[in-house]
Amino acid sequence: MTRKLTSAPKHGHTSMLYSTVHTDLDTLDADIAFLGIPYGSAYTMDEVTNDQSRAPTAVRQATDRAVRLLDRYDFDIGGTLYDGRDVRAVDCGDVTGDPADPKAHSRNAEAAVRRILAAGALPLIIGGDHGIPIPVLRAYDDQGPITLIQIDAHLDWRDQINGVHDGLSSPIRRASEMPHVKEIFQIGIRAQGTARPEEYEAAQAYGSNIVTAYELHEKGMQAILDRIPNGGRYYLTVDADGVDPSVMPGVAGPAFGGVTYCQMRELLHGLVRKGRVVGMDIVEITPSKDVNQLTAIAAGRFFVNLVGAAVRAGYFDERISRRAARPAA
After folding, report:
1. Average pLDDT, stretch 122-140?
2. 258 near 302, Cβ under 8 Å?
3. Residues 6+ apart with CB under 8 A from 127
4. Which residue of 45, 99, 151, 287 could cross-link 242, Cys pair, CB 3.0 to 4.6 Å?
5. Angle between helices 294-312 and 261-274 (to 10 degrees)
6. What is the pTM (predicted TM-score) of this model?
7. Where are the alpha helices (DSSP H) in the chain?
């Protein structure tokens, strides 16, 4: 019997964007799969109960503010969310852990994403701290080459902190070591994080495309999009502190001058037009620091823009046609 990798969401809105809850990943039949990954690898005992582990629930609870109802016209995407098409979206719940095995959660996260990808669904992931893209990206080892797009205030290129190599300061360093990750764009970088001069030099030596927030604001998002290769397979990791705190205030380390909502919308729609977005995560939301649910609502709106653009680009049309052609049971 296959071990259970996820548990059903709890409280209020029990799924993201009113999707069907489906936690049996062995029987997954969906086009889009939302997945909560509550935490990564903590650096200290104080971080074991990090408030960011509540973010998947907080984002789900903002569903009715991100999307009032599925039949309402949405001006960000030019119509209803699924555009009248038979798109199947499910919420796979939250990845489970094991109190007796701190690494079990990471293994389960990787296994869950592998199941979603094997089912042909698009993984849309709600973290959790920024360590969670590490097991997620490991699951894409047969999906490459992947172009990694990071929205963040911070470089996230530390090799280790306190002997932990897969924590929230290391996801892009770890991604750079994965053979299937071929090019990296780091957008919105500003202020100070855990990176020392040696981490910045290591990122440059790798060839990472570091786009500061100030370059982004000076040149515009379209100019940055033009630097990203056409026809690629893009994975997008969004650290909430990469977005300006006027849009996403609920973060542990707010930094002024971040990516705006309109720039994020332009990036999401632009990547869908350029090639194939194969996955996305939103991480580092700290619910206790949120203001009027703004951060959770913005996360939902980013998913709405990606999904709405993907639907209109025909991402799911072939799967919808195959389902329609199946003989009735």
Report:
1. 96
2. no
3. 36, 37, 38, 39, 40, 52, 55, 56, 281, 282, 283, 284, 285
4. 151
5. 20
6. 0.94
7. 55-61, 63-66, 104-118, 133-138, 171-176, 197-206, 213-219, 221-227, 261-274, 294-312, 317-325
